[in-house]
Write a structure and sequence with these properties.
Strands 1-8-2-3-7-4-6-5-9-10-11 form an 11-stranded mixed sheet, sandwiched between helices. A 4-stranded parallel sheet has the order 12-15-13-14. It is built from 11 helices and 15 strands. A hairpin with a 2-residue loop joins strand 9 and strand 10. It has 2 domains: about 210 residues, DHBP synthase (Alpha-Beta Complex); about 90 residues, 3-Layer(aba) Sandwich (Rossmann fold), CATH 3.40.50. The longest helix is centred in the C-terminal third of the chain and has 17 residues. By secondary structure, it is α/β, with parallel strands linked by helices. It binds threonylcarbamoyladenylate (TXA) and magnesium ion (MG). Magnesium ion binds next to loops.
Length: about 325
């Protein structure tokens, strides 16, 4: 077993793994990341190999200190400072013009780089002790459910990483919100753990990238993503009829209000709290895909605040099975 409870000693060991070009899965407040030295192209190449990820998908650089941002990216808009002062550390990734020190393999040849400062003590200590920015995608095989617990990482890619640091359950549970600054405009590339409303309260209007962008530069924008290993569809009357002879696992938002003989049931938040629902989303999908059921039906949630990120993940998860 290569899962280690995160302690001062194990974080030091993990930092040595990163320094020597290895891979460490580590907790952040959003999801677990699969980390490598972000300035070492060979170490970063191992990430793509391990995830079986198309190499055109660029990675996020994780830093431990707000001041490091300008080492790797050009900051030429006062709104950027406003955002990082308010939301870093936290689930917000900024895509900005990159400096030459950032290797092309990190950005997939783009002239921009994605950067965030995670809000998790283990992630921050690991980055600090490694002495480099850590490039990290979510620590799962490409296209599958994101990991929000160390055991999820272990099931997906456990045999391919040098160490998994266990820091418990991720508190946010969906990936960071990604925004890009281009030509004075701010574009939301991926909805995530920080809502658009919160960002707009701070800096004004944010545009949303078209859903049907043909050349996505965020897998979050690919039509298929975040899919469990068994079919996932939305919970509708038609689907209940269509699959009435199947064993169904149901994922509800607030209450299991349907009189139907489901094989298994999960409720994202009995209080109806979107934050709690987001934190439980991947956990419950991981649990359901392990059960003896034929498919999962998920109740749609209201697309407001974090509900936008939840529906984005569910839409992309269902898309894989619809066509
Ligand atoms: O919460 C998170 O963001 C997690 C944790 C580990 O930090 N990371 C994560 O990484 O979700 P990943 O690789 O699964 O998603 C990163 C997204 C991808 O959709 C990628 O295409 C986009 O960031 N991205 C990275 N660099 C970019 C760039 N230069 N321009 C546009 N999108 C970029
Ligand atoms: Mg991912």
């Amino acid at each position: 077993m290569n899962i280690f409870e995160a302690t001062k000693e194990t974080i030091d060991r993990a930092a040595n793994v990163i320094k020597s070009g290895g891979l460490v899965a580590f907790p952040t407040e959003t999801v677990y990341g699969l980390g490598a030295d972000g300035l070492n192209p060979i170490a970063v190449a191992k990430i793509f190999e391990t995830k079986k990820r198309p190499s055109f998908n660029p990675l996020i650089l994780h830093i431990a200190n707000k001041n490091e941002l300008t080492e790797f990216a050009f900051v030429d808009d006062s709104r950027i400072e406003k955002l990082i002062n308010k939301f870093w550390p936290g689930p917000l990734t900024l895509v900005l013009p990159k400096h030459d020190v950032v290797p092309d393999i990190v950005t997939s040849g783009n002239t921009t780089v994605a950067i965030r400062m995670p809000d998790h003590p283990v992630a921050l200590q690991l980055i600090e002790r490694s002495g480099c920015p850590i490039a990290a995608p979510s620590a799962n095989k490409f296209g599958h459910l994101s990991p929000t617990e160390a055991s999820h990482v272990y099931r997906s890619i456990g045999d391919k990483v040098d160490m998994i640091l266990d820091g418990g359950k991720c508190s946010v549970g969906v990936e960071s919100t990604i925004i890009q600054f281009t030509d004075g405009k701010i574009i939301l590339l991926r909805p995530g753990g920080l809502s658009r409303e919160e960002i707009e309260n701070e800096i004004g209007k944010v545009e949303v990238i078209s859903k049907f962008s043909i050349r996505p530069n965020a897998p979050g924008q690919l039509p298929f993503h975040y899919a469990p290993t068994i079919p996932l569809y939305f919970l509708t009357v038609e689907n209940l009829k269509k699959y009435s002879n199947k064993k169904i696992g149901a994922l509800f938002f607030k209450c299991a209000n349907l009189n139907y003989n489901f094989e298994s049931i999960r409720i994202l938040s009995e209080k109806g709290d979107m934050k709690e629902a987001a934190a439980n989303l991947f956990k419950y999908l991981h649990e359901l895909e392990k059960e003896n059921i034929d498919l999962i039906l998920a109740e749609p949630v209201e697309e407001e605040g974090l509900g936008v990120a939840i529906m984005d993940r569910l839409n992309k998860g269902t898309n894989r099975f619809i066509n």
